[in-house]
Design brief:
Layout: H1 2-75, H2 77-103, H3 109-121, E1 124-125, E2 128-129, E3 133-136, E4 141-143, H4 165-176, E5 178-184, E6 191-198, E7 204-211, H5 212-228, E8 236-242, E9 251-253, H6 259-267, E10 274-277, E11 283-290, E12 295-302, H7 308-364
Antiparallel strand pairs: 1-2, 3-4, 3-7, 5-6, 6-7, 8-9, 8-12, 10-11, 11-12
Length: 365
Amino acid sequence: MRVNEKKIIPYLIVMVTLVFALGAGYLMSTFYLQKITALFNASKEKSVSETLSAKKEKSELYSKGIISLFDNQANLIDANIEKELKSRIDAAYENARFIYEKYKDVKSESDVKERIVDALSHMKHEEHENVIFITDYKGNSILLGNQDMDKDNLVSYIDADYRSIVLEEIQRVRRRKEGFIKSTHALNQEKEIILVKDLDAYGWFIGSAITIKDERTQLKARLVDTLKSAPVDNDDFTLLFDENPEVYPLLKSNASLGDNELRIIKNALSPQSVWHENVINDYYYFSSYCEPLEWYFIHGFKSSIISAKEIQKQKDFEMILERETKFITTASILMASLVMTLAITLSLKISEIFKSCKIELEEQD
């Protein structure tokens, strides 16, 4: 029994050493792989987070730029109206004065007046017709033009703010020869800008009016056309809603959204600029409001979309992880082989020592 124990001891030494070596190698390999995997996952999450943050920042900047454009253009509505009115009235004034100077000495007064009225009644400005009116200092309508009033009782017209606009026009041309007047029409409650100018003949003055709503409508049409031609990244989308019950947007770019989804987006809008995350599954979008135009502008993207650059980053990380795994596996095998070789060599040496000791003990006996 003692002899058997002596034979087994060297092998036990080998097995225990080998088990400890392999266990240590396994623990080291596992720990290292876990560290690498955790690093990869953390880097992946960070990369996705940075991509989302960059896209959100881009959407905000783009939206703020669009809203700034809307506000600036809306603030120029009055100036654009005044510029157009000035152009109309100057052209009408030059036309009327040309006729007056040419025929005043060769034609009768009634004939000259008729020629002036006929010429101004056929004047066009861009797409607008019948844009000029003529009134005398007594408040009588000579040419009604685009005024929505009773031609036979012009002077009695009172606007929505209870102002006698015709009397104000007469006072303006008497005192300043020319001037702008803002009014709210009594019938449709629409705000308008009027320009009047003394004709310096026959006690007449000419004028023209533009409704602010009409100019705003034209401005909106121009802005929608501008947005349609604006570039939008393939991963992004834009929407433009008017503040009305209509669900379908004025503009939809790169957005494959159905009516139900558009309705959900429309109902979630507010005057505050705010991010909407997963109101529609898988969509992030930033909404902004332009008060002068009563528009909501939306710029967003699909949260699941990762750019090609980010995909390449993840592939690079995966390749690094694969290389590290192969390295660890190879190193572990080499380490185990080395330990086994050392253990076998050591066990053989110990076995020889045991045999030598046994022989010496037998010789002593």
